[in-house]
Amino acid sequence: MSDRSPSAATPENDPVSPDLFGALPDPQVQAPRPAEQPAVPGSRRAARASAASSPASSASPSDEGAAAPAEHHDPFHSTLEALFHHETEPPTAPKRKKRRGCLIALLVVFVLVAGAAGGGLWVWNAYGDKISEVMGWGPSKDFEAGQATGNALVTIKKGDGGQQISRALYDAGVTKTSGVFYDMLVKENIATTFYPGVYKLELKMTAAAALKALNDPKNKMQNSAVIPEGLSVAETISRIAQSVDVPLADLQAAVKNPADYGVNAPSLEGWLFPALYEFPPGATAKDVVSTLVQRTRESLSAAGVPSADEQRVLTIASIIQREARAEGDFYKVSRVIQNRLDQGMKLQMDSTAQYGYGELHSGSASTSDAAQTDDNPWNTYVIDGLPKTPIANPGDKAIDAAMHPAAGSWLYFVTVNMDTGETVFSNTYEEHQKYVAQMQEWCKAHPDSGC
User: Fold this and answer.
1) Is pTM, for the whole model, over 0.70?
2) Please, where in the chain does CATH 3.30.1490.480 lie?
3) Distance of CA 74 to the CA centre of its chain
């Protein structure tokens, strides 16, 4: 509920054309007319002559039947447009090699000439990113060799291709940008087979080093899976089936009866502990599930949870796991939950409404009106007290927070910055509403940040 809050009422760049250099008109050698001197290379006259001889400067059928008057034609702008927006079939590779030097020289001349005429700022604003890319002035998209350090775990799922793996490497902090690994595969025409599983790599690796590491069997953890915090049972067993040699159907059958694992609850929701697992060869679905449940019991014991209180603590911990944006807020969110329960207030936690309605992982922090008003035993906008079961699998920190809430009298909290996770806690509804307005203003300014 980090971006929403309980309340007393209601709640990477357009690539340059693959043949950028083919956009230049073929050089033509012409004898100067008797009455004129040859145009000085790089002058406006030379640019006009080049533009006039280029197909990009001629009128198209969509120009309402007539070309623009010559005196209003801007050859400088037209030629730049031809350079960066050419869409015809690319010429052969030899032509590109011959013209690369010409293109770079011409770009420099254009910038210099435009600057002398007072148009340099316009050129840079319009084409600076593309000029920087061609000239190699921008920052590198790859880490430098020798920077690799630390450890990183990368999961390759069944069916993942180069693009998905490239993104996974970036998300794990292995590569510098999300597309550099995939771009390398395409540019160098690399064909390789990636096998599902968990791989041990390093942080800040070059794309080439990451590829070498993924192809080294020593880096692949056998029959392993990484389960992040906050997933439901359905998502957890799906993750396992994608990297462990156990069929999903077997796992679905294995989680149906919690009593098989000594769990007295309607489901195993909250009981499949999030962690890195490596299972022995031949492990069955029940072996896998049993391992996760046992790990949950270890966490409950470490936090001092009495056996009779396990389900209640896991339920509170699951809400904390879904609501708190930063680990530093776990214990404060726990206090808000406890304070509301003590005062007989509805919890009004959006995560519970989203879970009950089936939109827990919809990608939006906000709850739909339909989910918020739906009458189901998990929606704490409707029911009193705690939801019927946990809503996700909590980690060690959330379980400990559920048992040891921070000291405070807060009844409300709202995340005012979805990017940083900054969350403000309040004692009164009036104070809380000021921060809700702050959150709403932030969301208006950042519409693509998951509000």
Assistant:
1) no
2) 149-221
3) 42
